[in-house]
Amino acid sequence: MAKKPTARQEFVLFDVTYEDGSQRSNRRVDASLLGGLDGDEPARTAIMDQDRAIAERSGIPPLAIKSIKRSGK
Fold it and tell me: Of 10, 51, 54, 66, which has the most beta carbons under 10 Å away?
């Protein structure tokens, strides 16, 4: 018997530049958060949440985000 297909989650990739000049590429953000009237602004919030979670685990404070842009543009 065939298995039911699992729900695929679509992601959009972003390049993030931080205030100290460092850059992280291909940060994944759930596509369902994007596309409304706010455009890509919800991606900033999602990436900040990811950074906060990483900072809690690593013990290193999160960096301030200077800019974000979609990868490949």
Answer: 51
